[in-house]
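Consider this today:
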Amino acid sequence: MENEKLILTDEWDKTFPKSDKVNHEKVTFRNRYGITLAADLYKPKNTKGKLPAVAVCGPFGAVKEQSSGLYAQELAERGFVTIAFDPSFTGESGGQPRYVASPDINTEDFSAAVDFLSVQENIDPERIGILGICGWGGMALNVAAMDTRIKATVASTMYDMTRVNARGYFDSMDTDARYEQRKTLNKQRIEDYKNGSYQLGGGVVDPLPEDAPFYVRDYYDYYKTKRGYHKRSLNSNGGWNMTSALSFMNMPILAYSDEIRSAVLVIHGEKAHSRYFSEDAFKKLNGDNKELLIIPSAVHTDLYDRMDVIPFDKLENFFYENLK
């Protein structure tokens, strides 16, 4: 099998400054479904031997030039080889149609990143961890339940995307509301088929309504401002295909998270609207190598890019301790 030929930008177009402490290069790798993924590879300078590695992805609807790249670069400064990758069908990664998501394929994307890291000459394949942000925090827990090669997992400011799609925010949707939602989305399937294209659901609302709830304002402050806007980010622009929600409504991702034997660190902001996702997910985890860390006063997107809020010292210690 050959990798799809991707168009990768040569310029530094991240939402964060480039570090002079790490080497950076673009790489590609293929997942089990034959989709070629694009990633940024970060390697600490002046190191020898085989190093521990971490694959990073998220938030859901973001690209590697945003939050995941910032995490990856910072962890590389601390001695890890890291990659921040674009999920299938998004960013610089391949796959058609564009802007579609899948609980299965997106879980596979993380395992494909582990495939890639496992065969690099400067990486110890027995010392690989993963880190998922927002919706990819849930994906990270899902893949940790499946992929025994992963020795440590971090879920930062996590969402369970299957839960929020099936039940709405704060579990506000009942069975009748879900049925109406499925009717709407299946009707959209017909329209998409007739049109030969996929209707986008829209990214973060812009302009921001005066009565927008806090969590919408929180997202706007990141995705729609200079702080975090990126031209390839779905959330910054037109959003996912509307019908992407269908599979997430029908396929819960955390069914076997109680069987994760490797170490897990779940991090969330005290004042984040999404805190209940992490707390409920943590309750299901088993073993004394699992930890929930609540960051005082932090909101959801503080853990996207606030360097004074993200507990990088804790992340460094957690990965070193569990990637021995």
